[in-house]
Amino acid sequence: MAILLSAPVLSSCLASCSAGAGEQPAAGGHAAKPSDPGAGRRSRKRVATAPCSSPYCAQGRASLDRHQYRKAIQEFQSELRSNSRCAQAYLGIAKAQAAGYQNAKAIASAKKAVSIDSRMGQAYELLSRLYYDIQRYELSIESANQAIDLDPALAQAYYYRASSAYFLDLLDSGPRKVDMLADLNQAIRLDPEMQKAYAARGICLASQRRVEEAVDSFSRALRLGPDADCYANRAAAYSYLNRYDEALDDLAQVSRLQPDNPLPYKTRAGINKQLEHFDRALDDYGKAIAIAPGDLGTYCDRAGLYEKLKRYPEAVRDYSKVIAATEYGDDVLRKRAAVYATMGKLDEALADLDRAHKIDPESSATLLARSSVLEKLGKSDRAKRDRERAAELGGESFKSGL
User: 3-state class of 378 per DSSP?
Assistant: First the structure.
């Protein structure tokens, strides 16, 4: 994944919320009177509450710690049968449901918890994560803000606020609502073992072209444990810095961790192509295609390399596979036409360009390319018309490449 030049993906940074003990506003599991909603924001003091002393809640928390989620839900439900206003029981159920990827149910349970006790920072923190998971980024930020207002020590809230803000920033060119790096740094200060925060910080730094710092952040994440996406991101950063040997080492780690992932082979092929190790690049493209034969982009990349190596029949074969699989591939038709023209197969080149023109009649690139082929075929009048039409469309600056 080229995190430096295209939209980064933060899914590699996701991890399950800690399923630890919740907090309860009053001993015995009863809800306290709702607090002033602005008080936490003004004071920024942690809202400290005692854990629920109910045996059912204690057993439920223990089951969460043991990853026995169905049992935990049963124990928390037992508490609710005797005390329907136990906010911590609802939070415990929400955590168990979230661990089982039942996001809709988990959101409902967490919202029930805060409806009983609006001071439950952990519930808002969990909501932030759940909304992030379903790409409701505005709601994720809103929940994270509430969590941080109630308890500034909730590291996960800073992480999800930053991650949600990152995606919103990709979608919206307006002013940023969150200082993402500040939030990620705070998450790391509060929890130095949060691998996903280091990884997310690396992506954020890379997107700002602070690539050396990004490498350091990815490296810190990897010191906490192997992660295929971290290796892939660091490889992209190394490649950007022309540190190809290190990039290749990281891509080998990605392949070891995810042997069915075509991405490291595609990326390695690009690096080998840059280093003019063309045979290795072709081998890597072949491996990527074997894993993901439906990825048409890999065929196009390999065709381009075949063309560079003057292996024209193989280039035509790969472009033909792409053309057969897509209805609107005027750009690929132009590329195959260029190869045909180089091979001296002008009639085949003209046929491809005619097809491309039907797909996009206002493509200056197609018109200019076709004019070049028509000239070679001795059809100067048609060639002149194509050039004039291309000029009308603003195509004077295009070159056909044929």
Answer: coil
Comparing C-alpha atoms, which of 163, 192, 226, 174 is closest to residue 9?
Answer: 163
CA-to-CA dists, residue 328 to 21, 115, 322, 359, 381, angstroms: 55, 52, 10, 6, 28
HSE-up of residue 346 (Cα within 13 Å, Cβ side)? 12
**Averages of pLDDT over each 10 residues, the chain, 402 residues:** 35 30 33 34 53 90 96 96 95 96 96 96 96 95 96 97 91 73 97 97 95 98 97 96 96 96 94 95 97 95 97 97 88 97 97 96 95 95 94 62 50
Long-range contacts made by residues 215-222, C-beta under 8 angstroms, separation at least 24?
215/241, 221/195, 221/196
Taking each helix axis from N to C end, the angle separating 103-116 and 87-99, rounded to the nearest 10 degrees, works out to 160
**Smallest Cα–Cα separation from 171: which of 130, 136, 127?**
136
Selection from 316, 318, 273 nearest residue 293 by Cα: 318
CB neighbour list of residue 270: distance below 8 Å, 6 or more residues apart: 239, 281, 301
Q: At how many degrees (to 10) do helices 364-376 and 330-342 cross?
A: 20
- CA gap 56, 73 in Å, rounded: 10
Query: Which pTM value belongs to this model?
Result: 0.75
Burial class (CB in 10 A: 0-12, 13-18, 19+), 201: buried
For residue 389, give the amino acid letter: R
Q: Which two tokens stand for residue 342?
A: 């180089």
Write the single-letter amino acid at 215. Answer: V
